[in-house]
Structure to design on (363 residues):
């Protein structure tokens, strides 16, 4: 199979989905890898590394399987074609024009963020962990006065109480944000819809508070709110209202990690790595959809390790056959041949759901 690796064009994005070592493994298995020159420069992989691994500098969109990191950008909408598969983060829900372009292309789109939906989300999970760790750093940055913040030091200091951090969600993002916030010495409260994850977290972080009730009161009193609620393949629930935010102390901060699925606050709208914040209702909002790109070298190594086994499986068996053989990979199928084949996406988009015909292909 021919596999294409295009260079990312999203603002601030320099991660790659496959390292030179991964390319070497594919080439040794008799697959052809096409890469766009400059692919890995942002993470320390010069073109020579890909060339030595056996990749060919060529138009990656000529390949049968295109493997990239982020969803298509407007300049890429016309590149996919019928019979081609794009394997990447997709995030169709908040971007109707992106979904329309995918449907019009006739191509298959498989989303990193829902692969293994019932198996721990092996591709999304390391990126969520990184985003959770970075969320506290981003929040501390937002709280500084010259970024519009209230001037609170989250760790506090002798004789001065630490800042108050409220984390919405106790999954991968929330647990990693909790680790970072407690490491700083902040006062931390974690909210989740159920307390099923609280036992382990309480044992690890006995100084934090854990609640499964509505968070309005604590949000109003917080210096930093971190949104880490995820429903795989669906839009984020709106947990924080504009009215609640308006009652927070001016200069407090909201870091909305779930913004790539619409965000958890009524005031949330997507920002970028070069223009990362805005102030609304007096609150500094940080809503960057590709936060792991801030630590692109580490993120690439974690992402590529999770992506490579699935690429090898699709290259070996063929796309639909690989989906039939691996239910976790099939969870990632979003769009195919002009139809929405993921139930959650169909629900959010208000469009018909067409099951993916994978069993016939496998037989």
């Amino acid at each position: 199979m021919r596999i294409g690796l295009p260079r990312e064009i999203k603002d601030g994005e320099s991660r790659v989905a496959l390292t030179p070592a991964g390319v070497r493994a594919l080439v040794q298995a008799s697959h052809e890898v096409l890469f766009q020159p400059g692919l890995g420069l942002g993470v320390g992989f010069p073109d020579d590394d890909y060339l030595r691994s056996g990749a060919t500098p060529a138009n990656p969109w000529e390949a049968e399987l295109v493997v990239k990191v982020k969803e298509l950008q407007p300049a890429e909408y016309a590149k996919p074609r019928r019979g081609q598969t794009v394997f990447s983060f997709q995030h169709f829900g908040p971007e109707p024009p992106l979904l329309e372009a995918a449907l019009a292309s006739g191509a298959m789109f498989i989303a990193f963020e829902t692969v293994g939906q019932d198996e721990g989300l092996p591709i999304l999970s390391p990126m969520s962990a990184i985003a959770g760790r970075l969320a506290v750093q981003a929040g501390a940055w937002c709280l500084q006065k010259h970024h519009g913040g209230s001037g609170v030091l989250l760790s506090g200091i002798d004789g001065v109480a630490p800042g108050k951090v409220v984390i919405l969600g106790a999954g991968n993002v929330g647990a990693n944000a909790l680790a970072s916030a407690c490491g700083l010495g902040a006062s931390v409260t974690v909210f989740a819809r159920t307390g099923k994850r609280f036992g382990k977290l309480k044992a690890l972080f006995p100084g934090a508070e854990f609640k499964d009730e509505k968070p309005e009161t604590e949000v109003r009193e917080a210096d930093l709110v971190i949104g880490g609620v995820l429903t795989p393949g669906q839009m984020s629930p709106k947990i924080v209202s504009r009215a609640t935010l308006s009652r927070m102390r001016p200069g407090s901060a909201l870091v909305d990690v779930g913004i790539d699925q619409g965000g958890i606050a009524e005031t949330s709208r997507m920002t970028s790595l070069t223009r990362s914040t805005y102030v609304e209702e007096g609150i500094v909002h940080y809503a960057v959809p590709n936060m792991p790109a801030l630590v692109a070298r580490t993120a690439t190594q974690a992402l590529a390790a999770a992506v490579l086994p699935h690429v090898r499986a699709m290259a070996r068996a063929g796309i639909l056959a690989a989906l039939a053989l691996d239910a976790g990979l099939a969870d990632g199928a979003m769009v195919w041949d002009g139809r929405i084949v993921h139930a959650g996406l169909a629900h959010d988009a208000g469009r018909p759901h067409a099951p993916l015909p994978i069993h016939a292909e496998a037989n």
Summary: Residues 86 and 284 are 35 Å apart (CA to CA). The chain has 13 helices and 15 strands. The first helix runs from residue 20 to 28. Residues 359-363 have pLDDT under 50 and may be disordered.
